[in-house]
Amino acid sequence: MLLSATPQPAEAAASCDRSMALGNQTAVALLDRASEDLRGFAWHATAQLIEAHSEASDGSIPRPIQDDFAKLPGGFSPTEQLLDAIDLKEVELLHELAAAPHIDLVGKETLWKLDHALAPASPEQIKSLLQADAPNLRAYIWIWLARTRRGGCILTHFDPAAIEAAVFERSLVVELGNELLMRPVSLYALAARARLIAGKPGSLDRFLHRVAATELHATRGRLHPQVKASAHAMLIRRGLHDQVEAGMMAKEPPVRAAVALALLESDPELHEPTVLQAAASDPVDLVTEALVEKVLRVRGVLKNPESVSDEMPLLTGGLAETSDPRLVEAVARWFGHGDPLAPLPRPRPTATPTTAADAHDSLPQPGASTGRESPQSATAEEVSAQADAADSTEPHTAPEPTAPTSPSDAPIHLPSVTDDPDPAPEEDLSQ
User: Which residues contact 371 (CB under 8 A, 6 or more apart)?
Assistant: First the structure.
């Protein structure tokens, strides 16, 4: 047995307090629910990435993308060099995982093999693996720390600040689960931070507030929008609603969607009117469709959209009473009616402009209102994790929002073979 051959690490793992080993799995479960809410955004960006590079010489399947500009303690080191120096008998598995084209989350076999390979590893060895410049390997290590008993024991030896620094990087991996999705490595690091019990009351919530309040700029603040959205959703599901207004006004569509979806889950009767108003006024189709879907599911009308009939169901609540064309069309699409690739009707203006300039600004800008951007712009957004820029509208507030900001067409690129050879000029979104 591998553990008996390395008694010192095994004894350390056995002595780990069980409550610390199990960790804060409740918070990890809240992150899982937030990630599921954002699945549509991840899937859409991944599909655009595949479409944009379907004729590339290296194939159509996207590969991991390393953020070489992440400012992490100690920085990154060559993966092969780290693995050659580490004293683990199952190091070949780590080589294999690091070089794989995707993160395999189908079943538990891969995680079980990783758990077996890392059984004799010390906390220092695990920390060194998190400095590897292979995003896949880091993602697997974060998953292991957040999801396994032995990983939970090792996690207690980590400085929370080191984990929190890892949440602010923008490397991407390809997650193979029920679908093929591009996910930020920092999302897996956030799961490990959610599990860690730092010994200070409210330490996790303080960190989530910090993440939720982070302004995403083109040249700094390297937080991925999906991570910021997840932090907002976790705070709401933990009963902390002080960031709701900021989330509903956020420039990033995933943040606006995550906040509204978490609100609806926390109290459907109370928040359904606010969520429907947000769905009607948001110019990004992905946001509108996600909110309408959630309302339909909460009402019990939509159960399995893959096998629905052409008959429109009997609606209840706000959707039964609305005449808003954007909401009506979104409902119809969930039941197989209309063209799912066409843009939804534009949001209705919520206020009468006082000047011609205001009249122009009150509507979504052409080409940025559907949430179905061109493959080039959508690819750059996901690869670089650039925050959506405000064009000229004021962000909306709940419960009567005005049109949120429109996505930017000025992506910031990480170094990658998938980069556009002639990208658009970088736009500085700093305030």
Answer: 44, 253, 284, 285, 286, 287, 288, 289, 407
